[in-house]
Specification:
single chain; about 200 residues; mainly beta; Trefoil (Acidic Fibroblast Growth Factor, subunit A); 3-stranded antiparallel beta sheet; 13 strands; binds 2-acetamido-2-deoxy-beta-D-glucopyranose
């Protein structure tokens, strides 16, 4: 029989986990509203002259499509929806893991969910591609989860990170922040370089 002390400890751990979640501030959109799961948002650079909205990029006339940016700021680009890892969570919070999926249909068989991809040969930076992580493991589909972190000292400005420690707390990841990488005049997103500060605009 489980001792009352053990049950008490489990309760305490669960209570602390709940508090920790509630402590994470909501990510805010360009109007100061909390980002909701399942709602369309455009992601775009916080500073002008850093390319346009996030979009799907055909890197080399083939599938899968990569995650990148429009060349210039404007109305083009696809919105994304966020799906928090935490079951039942409806608010997108800072420092938490979520899947990010473009609201777009393509001719590729792969899903439009963001996924950590291969290294770009020239720079050795890790690209962000689209597709579902099919790996069935206890740690889950870690390559499909990204965090949104606040850019220090700037309200409403964030950067994206791949570091799925919520999906797998015991895993050791080589975490990386998301920035831009220009390849053949196309703006791709990649880890392991300078960070691209972004804002979220409700579609
Ligand atoms: C694009 O595809 C062609 C044909 O498959 C290949 O020769 C070329 O190296 C590819 N370029 C890049 C940048 O991947
Ligand atoms: C950006 O410009 C390059 C070169 O003209 C082009 O190949 C690419 O498709 C453009 N990207 C987008 C997202 O339109």
């Amino acid at each position: 029989m489980m001792s009352m002390k053990l049950i008490g400890s489990i309760w305490l751990v669960m209570a602390m986990a709940t508090v920790a979640q509630a402590d994470n501030a909501a990510v805010l959109d360009t109007t100061g509203q909390a980002l909701q799961s399942g709602v369309d948002y455009y992601i775009k650079p916080a500073i002008t002259d850093n390319g346009g909205r996030f979009t799907l990029i055909d890197r080399n006339n083939s599938c899968p499509l990569y995650v990148g940016q429009e060349n210039t700021s404007g109305p083009e680009g696809f919105p994304v929806i966020f799906a928090p890892f935490e079951e039942g969570e409806t608010v997108v919070r800072e420092g938490r893991d979520q899947k990010i999926t473009f609201s777009a249909s393509t001719t590729c068989v792969q899903s439009t969910t963001w996924k950590l991809g291969e290294k770009q040969a020239e720079t050795q930076r890790r690209l962000i591609v689209t597709g579902s992580d099919e790996v069935e493991s206890p740690r889950g589909a870690t390559s499909n989860y990204f965090k949104i972190n606040k850019q220090a000292d700037f309200d409403g400005i964030y950067y994206l990170q791949w570091c799925p420690t919520e999906v797998c707390p015991i895993c050791k990841f080589i975490c990386g922040n998301v920035g831009a990488l220009v390849e053949n005049d196309k703006r791709l997103l990649a880890l392991d370089g300078s960070v691209l500060p972004v804002v979220f605009e409700r579609a």
